[in-house]
């Protein structure tokens, strides 16, 4: 199992709009296609204007397959067109769980 941690740096003051758009247009598509969301967060202390979300996959191959499906979905493409201008930077990390970690059930 792997976990992808995606961190988006947003324009100043854009977090509320980002979460609204994501809740209305992006969430259902991602949950349907990507599957196992572990968490979705905004940052309150430290480097601000960031959104962090975590997704679990059985393997890098599964991640690649699901992300390709996401990027071929018309609903997702429409959402990205709308939310894209709010995102200034993106960072992705692939995490491997510690041996004692039990993956929580899908959110």
The span between the termini is 17 Å
> How many structural domains does the protein architecture include?
1
Which bin fits the share of residues in helices? 25-40%
Quaternary organisation of the protein chains: single chain
Q: What is the 3D shape?
A: globular
Instruction: Count helical runs.
Output: 3
Helix/strand order:
EHEEHHE
In CATH's first tier, which class applies?
Alpha Beta
Which runs of at least 5 residues are low in confidence (pLDDT < 50)?
none
- Examine the coordinates and then state which fold CATH places here, giving the name of the CATH topology: Alpha-Beta Plaits
Strand order of the largest sheet: 2-3-1-4
Please state roughly what percent of the residues sit in beta strands, choosing from under 5%, 5-15%, 15-25%, 25-35%, 35-45% or over 45%. Answer: 25-35%
**Over all CA atoms, what is the radius of gyration?**
14 Å
**CATH architecture grouping:** 2-Layer Sandwich
Structural category: alpha+beta
Overall pLDDT, averaged?
Answer: 95
Largest sheet: 4 strands, antiparallel
* Strand count: 4
Summarize the structure.
By secondary structure, the protein is an alpha+beta fold. Helix content is 38%, strand content 31%. It has a 4-stranded antiparallel β-sheet with strand order 2-3-1-4.
């Amino acid at each position: 199992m792997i976990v992808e941690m995606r961190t988006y740096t947003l324009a100043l003051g854009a977090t509320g709009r980002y979460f609204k758009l994501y809740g209305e247009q992006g969430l259902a598509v991602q949950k349907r296609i990507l599957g196992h969301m572990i968490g979705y967060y905004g940052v309150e202390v430290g480097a601000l204007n960031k959104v962090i979300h975590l997704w679990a996959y059985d393997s890098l191959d599964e991640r690649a397959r699901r992300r390709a499906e996401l990027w071929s979905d018309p609903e997702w493409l429409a959402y990205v067109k709308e939310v894209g201008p709010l995102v200034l930077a993106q960072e992705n990390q692939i995490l491997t769980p510690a041996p004692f970690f039990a993956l929580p059930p899908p959110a």
